[in-house]
Structure formats: structure tokens, C-alpha cells
Amino acid sequence: MKAASKLKPLSLALATCAALAAGWTATPAAALELESASIADLQAAMASGALSAEKLAGLYLARIEAYDQKGPVLNTVITLNPKALELARALDAERKAGKLRGPLHGIPIVLKDNFDTVDLPTTGGSQLLKGSLPPDDAFVVKKLRAAGAIVLAKVNLSEWAGGGGSVSGATDPEVIKAGTVPNGSSSMGGQTRNPHDLARGPSGSSGGTGAAIAAAFAQFGLGTDTGGSVRGPSSANGIVGLKPTLGLLSRDGIIPLALSFDTGGPMARSVEDLAVALGVMTGVDPADPATAKSAGRAEQDYLKYLKRGALKGARIGIARDFMGKDAGTDLVMARAIEMLRLKGATVVDIKYPEYLLAAKQPLLTLMMSSEFKAQITDYLKTTGPAYPKTFEQVVALSNDPKTGYRAPEKAYALKYTASIALPLDDPRYLAAKNQGLPAIKAGIDALFAADKLDAIVYPTSPKPATLIGEPSAGGLSATSFANETGYPDLIVPAGITPNGLPVTISFFGPAWSEPKLLGYGYDFEQATKARVLPKTTPPLPGDSLAMRN
């Protein structure tokens, strides 16, 4: 059952300060608008005493109350944090006492409900884990809380991160029909809707995070990405998102889908806010050996790379293989490419080799189904005695009429996955992992090397957000290449189609190139200012924070 908010909308008239405070510079303006205010703006206002963490959290909770289960009924929230305002008051007391934890002190966030939180249930979107309290916080959640972030809510996702029980790769029309899950839905959270068009889905699997951040339910959020699950929702909802280099962020305490590809990633309304969040979460974690590679490469301050003019002199490859599927998307992309040229980038058309295009989805599907079967079993061993303990039990319970399982398509897809998943010592799985993945990585490296590219740009999704009952366009995208190589991919709003749907541009780069990609994304963002607040979630009366002369 969804946790209901009993908080009344807060009508706040807050004065903000134009002066510098604690090293932060507020954006000069007649008013500070909640949906466009940056973390820096909010910190300046709080440092001056014109705003408090409690009032800020109240503003975001008011938007959740107005728009999540009322009004457009976006249905993003699975669990609302009943102690959010209490936590905010404690952080205000710390600030008053002279203790400032850092740039996220008092900043409200949301988490995809596959990040472990010791005080809030973590369900992976499955009703089978309803009420499951993990033994501790995920590594990155600990880092965010230590930095002063306030977890407002756990939000919806495509169940088991979408690919955990999927008919992806099936060719039988009957199998595809029976096992295709409506995009942005789960048995635990129901159907999330896209705030730009309520008939459309938020994409998967981090759809709840994407819709919540677009609708300004929190300052930023976390998603996870195995084949495009941060980037698809960032695109469909028109926000900024990052799939980082594999190993930059710890996966400890995140419900796994396929650890060869999995990573968490920040989702925000600006590149600046995303950079702040990213720097707080990096660090080597002994519980996730992949993070050992980040030693000496991870940064704690990515803001220093955000500079106008960063695109000047950059060599950008344009991957036209992923265009031509939607006229509106292509129109926005044409304008985006022209902007790259105007900003001084050298633009080079590139073509992906046929073997890469043919291999990307089958290899991902084979490895993902096989790893999920083994790795979800490992995670389930950490849950309480009332919950399933193996993948086989998840499949059986989902398909048992006595369970009253609310997602029949997912039940079918889980059974399908059970029929195709390979043991992790199977020669076919090992060939995919040990020979297939290196071959894809070598092919991508060759693309960068052949034209001396700094980044490859493509439309994150070749089509905008699809209707809830229609298949998503994820399989047509290039997103899985970033997972199969482990390389970073930054998503930035690029414009709106003629029928009002967001389009984003992807900046895909080599391993550990986050500083460079963030610079490119920031330069493009500042030149275009393409993000828009969805029409179904307009500002509330308290969202405009009056500035003081």
C-alpha cells in the first residue's frame, strides 16, 4: 500500500538574499523559482537565513501532495519519508550551531526504490518485498546522508529494474505480447505517468525518479542503469542524467540486475546540480571491488569543470545510426548539432560497424538474464525471513494465483527469464563475458580513435516518450554501448518536439571522462536552456521565493 502524505500544502513567502554567503553565489533574479533554483541558489538563501531546510522540504512535499496522488496523479512515490521534516529541522539546528556538512546540507532528494535504506522499505518495485527493511544504507546513500541530504521518498521503477524478468530478445509474437510490461510500472508502485503527457510512460527503469525530478518533487534523485535505465527516463522526462564509468560509484546496497553492467547515477534538473551530487558520492568501497579502479581517478569536486566555452575545439562524433526514427526528434537533433558547431566544436559524422549494432542487444540480454538469476538470489539472502530467498521462489510466487500478484505481464516475463537464463559457469555465458564484451569495447575504442574523438553525440532515445501501452524505443538506442564498455554517458535536454515532448542529447565518452563530458554538457545547456517544467505540474503559489533588495 502506498504511503499517504498527511502534510498540508505549505504557503510560504520567503525572502532570499542576493549577497554571497558561505562561498555560494545566488543567481540574481527578481524571484527564486523552486523548479529552476540550483543547489547553490538554495544554499545561499539558507546561509543568509532567508530559507531553511525545513521550509524547503515543505515546499517539495507540498508539490508531491498536490501532484503525485492528486491533480495529474503522476504516481511516482512508493514510500514517503515520515521523518523528512524532523530531519530537516535537525539540519537547520546544525547550521545554526555553525556546523555545515557541505553543499548538500538540507537538500531534499528522492531515491529509486532499489537503493537500500535502513529506515525505509526497499522493494525493487516488487510486492514480494513489501515492507522489507535492509540491514543498512547503500554506500552512496550513506555518503549523501552524511553530506546532509534529506531523503524525501523512495520512488517507483520498472519492477526489478525492468530487465529482471523480461522478454527482451524474444521473437515469438505471443511471448512478446504476454510478457511486455507497461513502461514505468511495477506490482508495488503501480503505473507512473509522464508529467509532460499523462498518456505516456516515464520510460524505464528509473521512471519514478525521472518523473519526480521533472515535476520538481525534489532537488535531484538517484536512478540505476544497466542498459539505459538512467538515460531513458532522463530523456523521456526532459532532465539531466549521468550513467558514470563503471566503478566510479559503489553498487553496494543496490538491488542487482546484472553487475557486469549495473551502476547508480544521479538525475537532476541541471548539469550543475548533477555535478554536485556526483562529487559527494564517489569513493573506493571495499564492498564493491569495481570501485578500486576509481582510485586516483574519482573527483570530489566536479564543479570546477563546468565552464562556458568547454566545447570550443572539441571533436564530437555524430552517431547518425540512431536517428531517422522520429521527425520531431530529428528536428531537435539538427538544431543541437548546429549549436555544437556554433560553440566551436568540430563535428564529424560517424557510423557504427554493423557487427556492433547486431551484437549489442543480444549480448546484453544473454548476460543480463543469466546474472539476474544468480545475483538477485544473493541479494534476497539479506532480506528478512518473510521474503523469498531465491530467484526460483520469486518466479513461483509471482505466478501463483494465491499471491494475488498485480503484474501478470511481469509474472510471465520472470518465467520466461527462468527458461533462458544460463548458469554463470555455462560456456555460452562465459564466451559472452570474456570474448563478446571485450570485442564490443575494442570496436567502440576504434570509433573514438579513428577520428580522434573526445565524445560521441546521439539522441538518447530515437523517439520521444511512448504511450503507456506501447513498447519503448530503448532497443533502438545506443545506450547499452555505455554499459557494455563501462564508459560514461551524460544526458542533457536539447529541446521539445512539435507535439510537446522532450528530446535529450547524449555525450558518450571514454572511461573516466566525466570531467570533460560535464564541461561539454554544461556549455551546451547554458547555450540552449532547453529544459521546461511539465505543463501538468505548474508552480504552486509558494514556489516563487521573493528576493530582497
Protein architecture, described:
With 549 residues, the protein is an alpha/beta fold. The protein has one domain: Amidase signature (AS) domain (Amidase signature (AS) enzymes, Alpha-Beta Complex). It has 15 helices and 16 strands. The strands form three sheets. The chain has an eleven-stranded mixed β-sheet, sandwiched between helices. The chain has a three-stranded mixed β-sheet with strand order 1-16-2. Strands 6-7 form a two-stranded antiparallel sheet. β6 and β7 form a beta hairpin. α2 (53-67) packs antiparallel against α3 (84-96), α10 crosses α13 and α11 runs antiparallel to α12 (408-420). The longest helix has 27 residues, at 354-380. The protein starts with 15 loop residues before the first strand and ends with a strand. The model is unreliable at 1-29 (pLDDT under 50).
Largest beta-sheet details: 11 strands, mixed
In terms of DSSP E residues, the strand content is 5-15%
Q: On the 0-100 scale, what is the average pLDDT?
A: 93
Q: What would you call the shape?
A: globular
How many distinct helices? 15
CATH topology name, in short, is Amidase signature (AS) enzymes
Q: Quick one: CATH superfamily? A: Amidase signature (AS) domain
Parts with pLDDT < 50 across at least 5 consecutive residues: 1-29
Distance between the termini: 47 Å
Query: How many domains, as an integer?
Result: 1
Could you name the CATH class? Alpha Beta
